[in-house]
Amino acid sequence: MLLILFFNKYLPMKKLALLSILTLTSFILFSQTEKRLIPSATLKNMEGANVNTSDFNNDGKPMIINFWATWCSPCKRELNNIAEVYGDWVKTTGVKLIAVSIDDARNAGKVAPYVNGKAWEYEVYIDSNQDFKRALNVNNVPHTFLVNGKGEIVWQHNSYLEGDEDELYEALKKLAAGEDL
Amino acid sequence: MSLKKVISFVLLIAPFIANNISAQSIDQVMSRGEIHGNFQLDMQYYQEDSLIGATAVPEHTLMNGFANFIYTNGNFEAGFRYESYLNTMLGFPAKYKGNGIGYRYASFTNEEMKITVGNFYEQFGNGLIFRSYEERGLGYDNAMDGIRINYKLAEGLSVKGVIGKQRLYFESGEGIVRGIDGELMVNDVLGGTLKESKTKLTLGGSFVSKYQADQSSQYNLPENVGAYAGRFVLQRGKISLNGEYARKINDPSADNNFIYKEGEAFYAQTSYSSKGFGLTFSAKGVDNMSFRSDRNASLTDLQINYLPTLTRQHLYNLLATLYPYATQPNGEIAFQGELVYKFKKETFLGGKNGMSLLINYSTVYNIDSTALPASDTTYLGYTSNLFAIGEERYYDEINVELTKKFSPKLSGIFTYSNIMFNQAVVQGKTPQDHPDIYANVGVIDLTYKLNKKHAIRAEFQGLFTKQDHQDWATVLIEYSYAPHWFIAVMDQYNFGNLIEKERIHYYFASAGYLKGTNRIQIGYGRQREGIFCVGGVCRNVPAASGLTLSITSSF
C-alpha cells in the first residue's frame, strides 16, 4: 500500500486507483479467515425503542435471522410454516428466531398486530430504513441467516421454497451438535 | 458519477488505511477488516409482438446490473455500488445510461457519534418531511450525497443531522437539502422507576429545509423552503398509539401549479394486539405536500419526503398490478382498519390444523377544498381543511383473506376483494371517458406438498368488472423441488374484454436454480403493459415479449 502511494507520481491516476483497490482487496481477502459477525445497525423493536443488532444474542445458543415483509407472500409462508415447528426447534436446539421486517411507514404499524395475530413466538424488529438489510448485503426478501453461539454467520439462504425449512433445521441441528456446516 | 470522482474518493481513503498500517502491523489491522457485497443482473432479449404492442429493440438485448461492495474494519466502513445499464431495460427510467458508480461512502463510529460522508439513506420519523431511499428493482434512488452525523447525546436521546444533494440518475439535483431530527425516549431520559414502567413514551421532532436559486422571471419564488414535523409513540402493554404532524411553508412547484399555499400532513395509528388477535386503525391526511429539491422535477425525481399510501399492499398479480392506489400528494384523506385473528386448533372453525383470518378495509377521499376566484391576488390557489373529508372518493376496498391448513399436505389462502378505483384521479386520465372502476376479485392459492421436498402451488385469480378492460383471469402453477429448483407457468387472460381481438393471453414460463445466496432465473413470455410494483413503489412498464435472465448473489 505504502509502495503504491510512494510511486504515486509515476502512475497515471486511473491505474493508481485500480492498483490500490486491488492491493487492498487482496489484503482483505487473504486475511479474511474468520467468520463474519452480525454487523451493527439500529432497528426498532415492537415497543418503538432503538436496538443495536450487534447486541443480538441467545446465551451462546444459535440464532436465525430472517428478513421478511408484510407484503411478501413467500416470506409469510416461510415464517408461518416455521411457526408450526418452532416449538420443537427451540426444545431440541435452543434456537431463537429473529424476524426482521423491512416494512416502511406504510405497513410498519401493522407488523406487531400481524405477528401477534398469527401467534408467532419470534423476536421481531423493524428495519424501516433498510440499514441492516444493506449491511448484510441482502438483495431480496426472504433471506435467512443462521448464526452460531458466538454471533458468527455460518449459513445463509435466499428465497423460500416449500420444504426449505427442513434444510434449515438440518443445518441448525448440526450447529447445535457442534458439527461443521 | 464520473470515474474521476471515484478515483479521488479512493485516494482519499487510501492514506487513512495506509497510515493505520504504518502504525501497526499489516496483519493486525487487516485481519479485522472484512469485505462483503451483493450483485444483481437483469437482462432481456426483446422480440416484437404486435398483438400486445411489444416492440423489439435495436440492441436486441437490454441489461441492468449492479454490485455493492462494503468494507468494514472496526469502526471504519466504506462502500460503493457499481451500476451498469447497457442499455437501460424498457420500463426503467431511460436517464440511467451506461456505467458508473451510483453510490459511495465512508463512515466511522466512535462511542457517541457516527459520521458518514458521501452517499447515504436516511429518514426522519415516518418520512413525511424527509426520506432518502432506494428501490433498485424500479430504479428509484434519491440517495443523499453529502454529510450525515448521528449523535447519541445521552441514553435515550439521539440527534441526526444531514446535508447534501439528492441523486438524480448519474448526477445530483441542483437543490441543497438540510435537516435535523431529534428523538427522545422519555422513560430512558427521566430514568428511575419510569424506566421499568409499562407505559413508554417516545417523542421526536424534525426540521428540513431545501435551497434552490430562483431563476424565474415570472414569479418571485422562495429560495429556501422549510418543513417541520413532530411525532410521538405511546405504548402500554398491548396497546400502541402513534402520530405525526408535518407542515411545510410556501413551496410553489410544478406539482402544485406554482401556488403559494402552505402544505400540511398528518399520520396517526393505533393498535391493540394479543396472542392470536391483532387490530390496527390508521388515518392520514395530506394537503399540498409534494416536496422536492427541484421545484420543476416530476415523476419520482428528487423527492425529499415520503407520503405512505394507506391501502392494503397487494400480494397477488391482478390486484397488485391492475388498480394499485398511490398517494395523491396534492390532497387526500385516508382511513384504514385491519384485523388479524387466529382460530385455535381443535375448535369448530379452527379444525384440526387451525385457520387464520385477515380483514382489511381502506378508503380514500379528497380533502374538502374551495378554489380561489380568478381575481385572487394571494396566489394561494385554494382554501382547505386538512381534517375535512371531501366529496370525491379516490379508492375504497374491503379485503378478506382466509389461511387454512387442511392437512399436513394441503393448505390454502383464499382472498376476496371488492375495490372501487378512481382512475381519472389516480392515473391522471380524462374523467369523461374514464369512469370509476368497481371490481370484485377472488384468489385461491393452494399448496400441495407431495413429500418433504416436492411441492405444487397453484393460484387461480379472477377479476370481474364492467369498466376498463372488463374481466381478467390468471392461473399460475409452480412446481418446486427444495432447496434448489423451481419451474412455473402462468397465463393472464383478458377473457371478458368487449373487443374480441383484445382478449389476449399473457403467458409466461420461468425456471430457477437457488443455492445459498445465488439465484438464477430464466423466463420466457409476455409481460402486460401496466403497473409494476416493488415494495409499495410502482412504475408504468410497457408491454414486452421475449426471454429474460435474472441473477442475484451475495457474499
Q: Which ranges of chain B are low-confidence, i.e. pLDDT below 50, for 5 or more consecutive residues? A: none
N-end to C-end Cα span of chain A: 36 Å
Order of strands in the sheet with most strands of chain A:
2-1-5-4-3-6-7
| Proportion in helices of chain B | under 10%
Q: How large a portion of the residues of chain A is in β-strands, by DSSP E?
A: 15-25%
Class computed from helices, strands and strand pairing of chain A: alpha/beta
Strand elements of chain B, count = 31
The oligomeric state of the chains shown is: heterodimer
CATH topology-level fold name of the domain at 110-308 in chain B: Porin
Domain count of chain A: 2
CATH architecture of the domain at 110-308 in chain B: Beta Barrel
Determine Rg of chain B (CA atoms, Å). Answer: 26 Å
Mean pLDDT of chain B: 93
Helix proportion range of chain A: 40-55%
Task: Give the rounded overall mean pLDDT of chain A.
Answer: 86
The CATH topology of the largest domain in chain A? Glutaredoxin
Global Rg of chain A: 20 Å
The CATH architecture of the largest domain in chain A comes to: 3-Layer(aba) Sandwich
Written as H for each helix and E for each strand, in order along the chain, the element string of chain A is HHEEEHEHEHEEH
Which pair of chains forms the biggest interface, and how many residues does each contribute?
A: A-B, 70 and 98 residues
Shape of chain B: globular
